[in-house]
Amino acid sequence: MNPLCALSCFSLLLAAATSQAPKPCIVPDLLTGGVSVMTANGSMMTSGTLAYDAFGRRMRARHYGSFGNHTFAVDELMLYQQETMYEINWGTMSCRKLPLDTYFMPMHVPADAKLLGQAFLGSSSSWGMGLLTNTWYGQFPNNDTYSTVFTEIGCLPLTFSYFSPKSGWTLISTYNWVIGLSNPLDFFPPPFCYNVAMEKSAKPYTFFSAMESLAMKAKSMA
Question: pTM of the predicted model, to two decimals?
Answer without folding.
Answer: 0.79
